[in-house]
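Per your request, structure below.
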């Protein structure tokens, strides 16, 4: 599985990337994390990137493309990866296309987390306030002023990527403002639509017979056994396990078993014969 997560800073790409890593056994490739590691290690790339990152601007394309070219060739990325924070410009996306083609690889999806930028700034302000209150270390670019610059860079240089991938028919969009679990579920539905649809279908079918039982029982109190037996057979067709247990709980078991139905029918036949004999006499 090879994916790209698109979305402005603070949209939740990192959180969702970690969940994808756990669910699909792939690796997260975050250029932001790699650059921060390079800055911390004081490498040549780190020294070049430091002041650019602190200003909330984008590191030159060739720097991040070289990092990604090296990283996707490593053994742990063979099973797949989720790119978080890369590509961030159209030239980076084109370079990625070339890298993948050269290696005979393809992307499975590009997922955009759509968010309201105004709320995003509020989220970051709250996060900064909470982290400061807890005495935690902040990222040097994690402050509302730099965030505004990063959002501007996103709008100008990264947002056009949505069109780039939409034209290729690869773009999927999810509501990034929804609760984290809902965003994860929406991404899951995009990546494995069959898995996401199945449980919903089964539930809908299983719900019907139970409602029917109640409605019929309310309308025809005398022929309870018959209506329950009918529902039993349609429930068996729709959702065997669920219908069985619901039925077991709610109904008189005698009436819904095959033997019970036979007994009831035999009883009805006997009564009819008796009535006929009495009339004849
Ligand atoms: P992030 O953690 O993804 O928000 O990235 C933090 C910072 O790293 C960004 O504000 C940029 O300065 C730099 N950066 C990360 N990824 C890229 C990229 N693909 N292209 C250019 N700069 C990047």
């Amino acid at each position: 599985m090879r994916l790209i997560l698109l979305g402005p800073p603070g949209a939740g790409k990192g959180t969702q990337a970690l969940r994808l890593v756990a669910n699909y056994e792939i690796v997260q490739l975050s250029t932001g994390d790699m650059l921060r590691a390079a800055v911390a290690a004081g490498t040549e790339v780190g020294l070049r990137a430091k002041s650019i990152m602190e200003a909330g601007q984008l590191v030159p394309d060739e720097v991040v493309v070289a990092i990604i070219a090296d990283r996707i060739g490593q053994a742990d990325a063979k099973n797949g990866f989720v790119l978080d924070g890369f590509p961030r410009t159209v030239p980076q996306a084109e370079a990625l296309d070339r890298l993948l083609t050269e290696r005979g690889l393809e992307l499975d999806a590009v997922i955009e987390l759509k968010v309201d930028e105004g709320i995003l700034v509020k989220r970051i302000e709250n996060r900064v306030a909470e982290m400061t209150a807890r005495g935690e270390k902040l990222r040097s670019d994690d402050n509302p002023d730099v965030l505004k610059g990063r959002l501007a860079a996103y709008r100008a240089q990264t947002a056009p990527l949505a069109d780039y991938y939409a034209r290729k028919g690869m773009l999927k969009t999810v509501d990034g403002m929804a609760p984290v679990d809902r965003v994860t579920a929406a991404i899951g539905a995009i990546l494995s639509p069959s898995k996401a649809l199945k449980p919903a279908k089964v539930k809908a079918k299983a719900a019907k017979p139970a409602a029917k039982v109640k409605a019929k029982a309310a309308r025809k109190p005398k022929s309870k056994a018959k209506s329950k037996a009918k529902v039993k057979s349609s429930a068996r067709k729709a959702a065997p396990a669920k219908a069985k247990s619901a039925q077991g709980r709610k109904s008189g078991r005698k009436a819904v078993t095959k033997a019970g139905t036979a007994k009831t029918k035999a009883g009805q036949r006997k009564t009819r014969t008796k009535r006929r004999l009495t009339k004849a006499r």
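Residues 9, 31-32, 35, 52-53, 56-59, 64, 85-86, 88, 92, 141, 150 surround adenosine monophosphate (CB under 6 Å).

Regards,
D.
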